[in-house]
Amino acid sequence: MSKLRRREFLMAGVAAAAIAGLPKMARAQATRSLRIGMSATNVNSLDPRRSVQNADNFVQRQIYDSLLDPPYGTFDLDYADVVTELAESWQVSPDSKTWTVKLKQGVQFQKDAGELTSEDVKFTYDTIMDKTTGSTQRVYITDLESVEAVDKYQVKFHLNKPNPNFHASGLISIIGSIVPKSVAGTMTMEQYARQPVGTGPYEVAGTVSGGGVTLKAFEKYHGKKPEIDTVEFRYMADPTARTLALLKGDLDIIEGARLPGWVGQLKQQMPNVVIDQTRPGSINTLYFNMSMKPFDDIRVRKALRYGIDRNTIITAFGGIAGPAWGINPPEFPGGFKETELPEELRYNYDPEKAKALLAEAGHGDGLKFEIIMTQREDYASIMLMVQDMWREIGVDMTIRTIDHTTYHAEKDKNVNAIVLQSSTFAPVSTQIPVTYYRSGAEVKSDGSGDQNYSHYGAIGGPGVDDLLDQALAEGDLAKRQEIVRQAELKILADMPAFTICTLSFVYARNPRLDLGFDVKAGYARYRLGGAKFTS
């Protein structure tokens, strides 16, 4: 058995260990409490302006309303179909540079924080745009010039470039989740992260602890009051513990273990389980840190790319994984399909070519380095398979595993030679290249930078800043997508990073719980305000 086959076998074994031998699903007791197990160790931040992990985002989606959102369970961004949560109505100027939102009147904040007004919206976005706050959402609204509170219930967003997709990049959750100025304006983000106040269907009950969050229905919610009174989020990094709790009936929803074979194993033990699966889900990309040797050498970067068999990884994950040939996944408007790329930019698996490039770069005797990596199963599974593949071409990558929250903090300090980032975006062609490939977005050692982990455009050539500027200035969507495709081709040629695969977000749900909609696409979170138990 080859090393790679052994790794696939071992990873499948981990999935099986999370399922095999566990008891069949117990009959859950009637209860008004909805219990959810999330793949994380500790609460990081419940401030939507500064949020880095899926578990926190799921909790936030219940606490906060967004200005707008796609129809629940979808990523449908057609203007006519967008859901208005805090907005009563909205308009776009002919040049797509001014977006006017009229707020619903009488919407109350939790914890007696008063009525939602345009000043709260302006405050939320002003703090996101302020570079000193370190907001993780700022990268999504780089084209936002200013926010104007026209009157008590009307807000205008002034963009410095036309953007017909600003609703998708700047007004939907979590970016469009509004915090109260009267509360958040009196605290630091660190303080507010543990004392969140929103307008959503649920509010925090009691104190936010490290290992979980309990929410209760918000009595003054402006929409339909939730049918389920209490929601308990339990942070459980161990996939075996989450799976066992679902099978025993202790949890109603769990964040699935994105491990090879996990879904199939779970269905064997719990045939009636409901699997909520998004497409394309997360986009899993490896970034070469070109500020560190030898990753400043394009031959090394291309060698490592040729040394990865994407098909083996996708096959190992089964039906939850999919291919990505360019920077944007093929499900995105304008995303590249395999046949649309020149042969040399497809980087099909070729270990002999990888070895030859390493030798040419002076690493014929091998290459050795260490990275830090999160323990979260989807990240860990991918990197363990990559580690084995790279051994086949003479590359020895040592993986030092840390918890998921710490990993997110550390990778943003320019400490890793290679960064694996799992990200989810609305299907807007400009968002991924603007977030990760603009020179001005490079990561910094003090943590004050953004998410260009490769330092692309700042090191090793001009990058694609000019093309991205052209795309962002273009109001015609088809023309904008074509410019982005030109940028993608250059990124693929320069190889500062590459997308390994997409992974559907997977949640396993007790069939007695009805969400009120089907989950087809979207972020790794969904609304629970309309959920109900059917038995």
TrEMBL record:
Cellular localization per UniProt: Periplasm
GO MF annotation: an example: peptide transmembrane transporter activity
SUPFAM superfamilies per the UniProt record, alphabetical: Periplasmic binding protein-like II (SSF53850)
Any single Gene Ontology cellular-component annotation: ATP-binding cassette (ABC) transporter complex
Domain (Solute-binding protein family): residue spans on this chain: 82-438
Chief localization: periplasm
InterPro entries for this protein: Peptide/Ni-bd, SBP_5, SBP_5_dom, TAT_signal
GO BP, sorted A to Z: peptide transport
Annotated family: Belongs to the bacterial solute-binding protein 5 family.
Annotated protein name in UniProt: Peptide/nickel transport system substrate-binding protein
Organism name: Phyllobacterium trifolii
